TrEMBL record:
<keyword id="KW-0479">Metal-binding</keyword>
<keyword id="KW-0732">Signal</keyword>
<dbReference type="InterPro" id="IPR015984">
    <property type="entry name" value="Cyt_c_prime_subgr"/>
</dbReference>
<dbReference type="GO" id="GO:0042597">
    <property type="term" value="C:periplasmic space"/>
</dbReference>
<keyword id="KW-0813">Transport</keyword>
<dbReference type="GO" id="GO:0009055">
    <property type="term" value="F:electron transfer activity"/>
</dbReference>
<dbReference type="GO" id="GO:0020037">
    <property type="term" value="F:heme binding"/>
</dbReference>
<dbReference type="InterPro" id="IPR012127">
    <property type="entry name" value="Cyt_c_prime"/>
</dbReference>
<dbReference type="GO" id="GO:0022900">
    <property type="term" value="P:electron transport chain"/>
</dbReference>
<feature type="binding site" description="covalent">
    <location>
        <position position="138"/>
    </location>
    <ligand>
        <name>heme c</name>
    </ligand>
</feature>
<feature type="binding site" description="covalent">
    <location>
        <position position="141"/>
    </location>
    <ligand>
        <name>heme c</name>
    </ligand>
</feature>
<dbReference type="GO" id="GO:0005506">
    <property type="term" value="F:iron ion binding"/>
</dbReference>
<keyword id="KW-0408">Iron</keyword>
<dbReference type="InterPro" id="IPR010980">
    <property type="entry name" value="Cyt_c/b562"/>
</dbReference>
<feature type="binding site" description="axial binding residue">
    <location>
        <position position="142"/>
    </location>
    <ligand>
        <name>heme c</name>
    </ligand>
</feature>
<feature type="signal peptide">
    <location>
        <begin position="1"/>
        <end position="20"/>
    </location>
</feature>
<protein>
    <submittedName>
        <fullName>Cytochrome C</fullName>
    </submittedName>
</protein>
């Protein structure tokens, strides 16, 4: 229960704090890359279970899905105002087509929220389906807004 309360507070407060703290473009880029790294790490843990590379542990899957859902809210404030550096892999379209970028991030957040719900239910078939749908939103965004 404490984890859920802490994650909820983190999801609400972190984007607000982060947005106010980007004194330098490098800070924004580092923040979004770090949050996306963590998101990808926990998503990959779910992927290993879905692919059968790791054993299915209902509690571990639920914990990682909850983290993914929380972390999915963090990177987006660091994309505001077109802040970038040469270290960034964001394509210019992430900044020039903000409406399309926001739509893609909203779809991803919804898909990982549905994955989180499926993981709480503990049915591996439902988790696999929700994982596939979430993975597709990630791929779509990477294809449109991330340089290789």
């Amino acid at each position: 229960m404490k984890l859920k309360a802490a994650l909820a507070l983190l999801a609400v407060v972190s984007p607000l704090i982060a947005h106010a703290q980007f004194a330098k473009p490098e800070d924004a880029v580092e923040y979004r890359q770090s949050s996306l790294f963590l998101l990808g790490n926990h998503f990959s843990r779910l992927g290993a279970v879905v692919k059968g590379e790791q054993p299915f542990n209902k509690d571990e899957v639920a914990k990682n899905a909850e983290l993914v859902a929380t972390l999915s809210k963090l990177p987006w404030p660091a994309f505001e105002n077109g802040v970038t550096t040469p270290k960034s892999k964001a394509k210019p379209d992430a900044f020039s087509n903000h409406a399309k970028f926001k739509e893609a991030s909203d779809k991803m957040e919804l898909a990982v929220a549905q994955l989180n719900t499926a993981a709480k239910g503990g049915d591996l078939a439902s988790i696999k389906k929700a994982f596939g749908e979430a993975a597709q939103t990630c791929k779509s965004c990477h294809d449109s807004f991330r340089a290789k």
